[in-house]
UniProtKB/TrEMBL annotation:
Record pathway: Amine and polyamine biosynthesis; putrescine biosynthesis via L-ornithine pathway; putrescine from L-ornithine: step 1/1
Segment forming the signal sequence: none
Organism of provenance: Methylosinus sporium
Protein name per Swiss-Prot or TrEMBL: ornithine decarboxylase
Cofactor(s), names only, from the UniProt record: pyridoxal 5'-phosphate
Similarity annotation: Belongs to the Orn/Lys/Arg decarboxylase class-II family.
MF (Gene Ontology): ornithine decarboxylase activity
Length: 380
């Protein structure tokens, strides 16, 4: 947690405005993260994944720094443009799009679209003639804490047919994309995907179609409970893999960081609502917070993302706890398989800080389930 966030939360408490959970994002951390990506992969364009945190202040900062934007909907396209991005800096990266949304994006000036099947190609050919398309392929997501397999992408051997179909329909068969899984801890996981991409490039070249771009996707991690490699290590591993599989003819490349751009910039302050046990003999306490899966912590599903939790009593005696949210839904349990060790002195009304929560929190809490309001957010 940065000093700026700490000072903001202290001022909020003094003013008596700490009546519910809130996320605080420090823009200086976002700025530093963008600089790290730009330095680690200097010949690669950064397309920030808007879905990670679409706060206008975050988007405006990144637009001013020269970032491009990966968007999943027309609303996200409009948000990026409102922040100062021109259409040529926007990719419609969702492979599942309504034809009328493709048409709207095209009317706004967007010309770069993701596909993973021939039917999607045909929609783009009708609604966005002449646009560039890149085909997403399936790849191994081993090592990722939040896998992104099956739903998006086609097998590498199907991609040439999809791209050739685009070419025959008057679109620009532009490139290949993949995603090695969110919170990917192994920088070498890009190697296998780039091997597949280079094979697709050669196959299309034999068909007289010259691809130009590889979208390296996201997957760049932020630090939670475990240390992760620095962005520089990812840049070095990716460049080695590009050189290995493409030789001296390295294509244009883009990356789509989301979590790695904003995750460590945010901290959620929450409050303990209840501390209890399920039996007199139970050694494990249940700690209920005023935030849960339906208020912004959806990524605790299956305990895939384990956030660092800090308290004012850190350093004192601890005991194992199950951590749960406040809603009347039995799945709103954050951590039970592997209980957290929290201070024994933790009590009703105690504040806790949940770190590394700048990504995928406010965007997962847009509906007031059970009447609990969406997660309040501040950007400083």
């Amino acid at each position: 947690m940065t000093d700026r966030i700490r000072e903001f939360l202290e001022a909020r408490r003094r003013a008596g405005r700490d009546v519910g959970p809130c996320l605080v994002v420090d823009l200086e951390v976002v700025r530093d993260n963008y600089t790290s990506f730009a330095k680690a992969l200097p010949d690669t364009r950064v397309f920030y994944a808007v879905k990670a945190n679409p706060a206008p202040e975050v988007l405006s900062l990144l637009a001013s720094l020269g970032s491009c934007f990966d968007t999943a909907s027309v609303v996200e396209i409009e948000q990026a443009m409102a922040a100062g991005a021109t259409p040529d800096r926007i990719s419609f990266g969702n492979t599942i799009k309504k034809e009328r949304d493709i048409a709207r994006a095209y009317a706004l000036g967007v010309r770069l679209f993701a596909v993973d099947c021939e039917a999607e190609v045909e929609k783009i050919a009708r609604a966005a003639p002449g646009s560039k398309v890149f085909c997403r392929i399936l790849c191994d997501g081993t090592g990722a804490e939040w896998p992104l397999s099956r739903k998006f992408g086609c097998t590498p051997d199907m991609a040439p047919r999809v791209l050739e179909h685009a070419h025959r329909l008057g679109l620009s068969a532009y490139g290949v994309s993949f995603h090695v899984g969110s919170q990917q801890g192994n920088p070498n996981m890009w190697d296998g995907a780039l091997k597949s991409a280079s094979s697709i490039f050669r196959d299309l070249a034999e068909r007289g179609i010259q691809l130009q771009m590889v979208n390296l996707g996201g997957g760049f991690p932020t630090r939670y409970l475990k240390n992760v490699p620095a962005v520089k290590a990812y840049g070095q591993a990716i460049f080695r893999a590009l050189s290995k599989h493409f030789g001296n003819r390295i294509p244009e490349t883009i990356i789509e960081p989301g979590r790695g751009m904003v995750g460590n910039a945010g901290v959620i302050e929450a409050e303990v609502v209840l501390v209890s046990k399920k039996s007199q003999e139970d050694e494990v306490r249940w700690v209920y917070l005023d935030i849960g899966k339906f208020n912004g912590l959806a990524e605790t599903t299956d305990e895939m993302i384990r956030y660092p939790i800090r308290t004012a009593a850190d350093g004192s005696a601890t005991a194992p706890c199950v951590i749960a949210g406040p809603s009347c839904d039995s799945v709103d349990v954050l951590y039970e398989k592997e209980p957290y060790l929290l201070p024994i002195s933790l009590e009703i009304g105690s504040k806790v800080l949940i770190e590394g929560t700048g990504a995928y929190t406010t965007t997962y809490s847009s509906v007031g389930f059970n009447g609990f309001p969406p997660l309040e957010s501040f950007v400083i």
